[in-house]
Structures are given as structure tokens and as C-alpha cells.
Amino acid sequence: MSKRIDVQNLNVYYGDFLAVEDVNMEVEPRSITALIGPSGCGKSTFLRTLNRMHEVIPGARVEGKALLDGEDLYGASVDPVLVRRHVGMVFQRPNPFPTMSISENVLAGVRLNSKKISKSDAEGIVEQSLRGANLWNEVKDRLDRPGSSLSGGQQQRLCIARAIAVKPDVLLMDEPCSALDPISTLAIEDLMHELKSQYTIVIVTHNMQQAARVSDRTAFFNIAGTGKPGKLIEIDDTS
Ligand code: ADP
Ligand code: ADP
């Protein structure tokens, strides 16, 4: 289910170092927001706070709020493990489990969530997720091959299939095309347009053209302490 993100007065620190300053941002369900800004301005850091991955980084801490459909992600009663399972993340370098089969890669997150899945349910999830990631036709005859047997672009779509298999509320993508060739990049961009009908998507990109092509809105970040310190300085409607 696609949820609304509402970030309020968010600061992120690594120890004493302020990496993200006073970000306020709303992201509507079933929309794509692109984050753009110079290297080191805190885009990845910010993205990680949206699924509480910052908590696995020594010294990292946040101030402020991030609400998912009104529920505070950092609330005392909210389990960070559950957050990570409901807010999917796709990284710059495709990271399928290399020796695990294609189908087991898709199921990896699902198996963490539910103790037992029947064989037929598992097959259904694999097919649905791979179709959702526009990868089914390319891999349906070799679901038992290892994830590492795929091309880079296919591996990235496999990672997207793994992320959507758990039916997340939000899909975060940190430069998902930076390690890919132009054709694979276009395939991922097309896929993002399709995924938008079901998910709230936030993508980090260093590519202005890509931001314009894929996103409904573009949020510009700046480096903390540079006049317009480290925050969202503008939101454009590019749709
Ligand atoms: P971007 O994604 O925009 O390139 P990052 O979020 O990676 O920016 O980094 C923002 C700032 O925080 C940079 O100055 C970076 O050096 C610093 N930083 C990133 N990760 C860590 C970390 N684990 N510990 C300390 N500082 C970090
Ligand atoms: P960059 O360092 O250029 O931002 P990536 O976006 O590929 O490169 O990776 C960002 C960080 O996320 C790296 O520190 C990497 O180790 C970490 N990372 C990659 N995959 C995972 C994962 N599945 N779970 C947790 N951390 C990951």
C-alpha cells in the first residue's frame, strides 16, 4: 500500500557533524520525488533515515519527524526492523545475493516476514514480483540460476523485484541507474513510471535529465552550512 511521507524539521548528525539540516518535505502516495544536489549534500543520508537504516551507522542520529501516513517512523513503539521491511531500498550497485537463485532472491525479504510460505504461494510471489519488475520474460526459464548470472541491468530489476515482493509502502532508490549502461537505465526509468501507480517512490539521482524524466517533483538539496544550509531549497512541479 502506497503511503504518504511527511518529513518535518529533520536534522541528521554523524556524531557532531550536521549532514542534513532542517529538511521539510511531503511526498504524496503514488508519486515519484527526485532528490538532487551536489555530492556530499546528504541525499543518501536523508534517504536512509526514511527506513531507519541510519541506525545501523555508528554515530548517526536524527532530530525531527518522519511520518508515514501520519505515523511517526521514529516513534517509541515503532519497531525499526518492521520499518525496514515496509520501506524498500534499492542501491546504486545492484546487490542480489550472488549465489542464491533468482527466485530465492525475490523471496529473500518475504521469507524474513513470514515463517512459512507454501510452494504455490512462493511461485505466485516470484512470478508477480518479476512481472512487476519487467524481468519475468527474460528469466522465467532459468529461475534456478544464481542471481549473479544476470546482467547488471537485470540484477537491478531483480533487486527491485525483491523490494516489491514484500509489498512495501515506500520504495527508496539511491542512484539506481548510476552503475548501469544507457539501455538498462531506460529500462529502469520505464519501470519506475509503472511502479508509480502502486508505490510512493523517492529516488536520489545526480542526473538532472533523469530527475525531469522520471519524477513528478524534484527536491534540491544543499550542503549543510552553505548559506541555504543543507535543506530542501526548492520543489519544482515538473509533471
Ligand atoms: P550524498 O548522498 O548527497 O553524496 P551523503 O549522504 O553520502 O551525501 O553524505 C553527506 C555528508 O555526510 C558527507 O559530508 C559525508 O562525508 C558524510 N557522511 C556520510 N556517511 C557518513 C558516515 N557513515 N559517517 C560520517 N560521515 C558521513
Ligand atoms: P555509494 O557508496 O557510492 O553511495 P551505494 O549506493 O552502492 O554506493 O552503497 C551505499 C552504501 O550502502 C554502501 O556503504 C554499501 O555498503 C551500503 N549497502 C549496500 N547494499 C546494502 C544492503 N543491502 N544493506 C545495507 N547496506 C547496504
Q: Which key features would you list for this structure?
A:
alpha/beta; 239 residues; binds adenosine-5'-diphosphate; four-stranded antiparallel β-sheet; six-stranded mixed β-sheet; P-loop_NTPase
Question: Your description of this structure?
Answer:
By secondary structure, the protein is an alpha/beta fold. Helix content is about 35%, strand content about 25%. The strands form 2 sheets. It has a 6-stranded mixed β-sheet with strand order 6-7-8-3-9-10, sandwiched between helices. A 4-stranded antiparallel β-sheet has the order 2-1-4-5, covered by helices on one side. Helix 3 (about 100-115) crosses helix 4 (about 120-130). It starts with a strand and ends with a strand. The site of one adenosine-5'-diphosphate has 12 residues, from strand 2 and helix 1.
